[in-house]
Amino acid sequence: MGMLLFTIIAIPVLCFILGVLFNYEIRKIYARSQYRLGPLLSMHSELRDFLGSSRILQPLYDVLKLMFKETIIPRSARKSLFISSPIISLILAVLSSYFISYGGLSLFADNPLSIIFITYILIGVSLFWVLGGLASSSPWSVIGSRREAELMLVIEVSLLSSIFSSAIISNSLSIGGIMSFQLKYYPIILLNPFAALVFIISVLGKLHFNPFEISEADVEIVSGPYTEYSGKLLAVILSSKYILTSVLTGLFVNLFISGGLILPPSNPYNQLINFIVFILECFIVTFIVSIVHSIAPRFRIDQAISWSIKYLWPLSAFSIIFSIIIRSILGVT
Questions:
Q1: What are phi and psi of 192, to 5 degrees?
Q2: Global pTM?
Q3: Residue 188: pLDDT above 90?
């Protein structure tokens, strides 16, 4: 019982820490591509002795400083929905972290329907971001939420198709089963690179990175759905984003790069090696996402939808067909 409780607490904390590191990497690469230094540490002197002075901690401090700021709720907002939406999004993001296998260590990755569960949960995270923006009654938030809802219609279809492409090849709806398949055969990124490409593009849309940084276009609509959020509620939103970043990155590693499993997880030494490999693979995936985010121009919402329907959806459909062909060639039953 004690070990289970420790795991329940440790996994979201690990996801949050990884999300902080991944967001620092993304911000740093994005800044360097524009010949800027990237995030510099701006921290109250009282916290320096406790947290240190590494620039890597700036995303963490962004959350901590918001926790001590006033939370302002607009008079015209639907108060209960405005407050509950970010909290529910964070809860769902935390739940999704339990389905990721961290180098073979997980809580629910071996569940026979773990793929089904995590896809519904990931949709819920974005859905409550939309509802929170609509509940604020701000015109900027409403526009951002509308863009987010429209983007969800095209991005979620592609994300689901790439996830189920892996499930089709491995003949398993379990993340653990998909990883076991890759240990027996080959990483799915080699068997179906089209599905991996669709997943990476979908992650860009899910996390609002270029070319899909549409719902948070700060030069147009301030911060989109989050414009009216401040203080603790904004800290909750940032936390859910950090966790979602690590979850999506980890899910890609699980589904397409064997989840970091290079040794049988039969002893603690092998498990530690697998965990380190998993973390390194996550950093590599984050690097790829960062490069695309840095060099790609931002779509307008109509361009994003049109491009997705013309190119991303056909590629998604092809990835599913390709998975069926590869599965028949391998003779997976």
A1: -145, 80
A2: 0.90
A3: yes
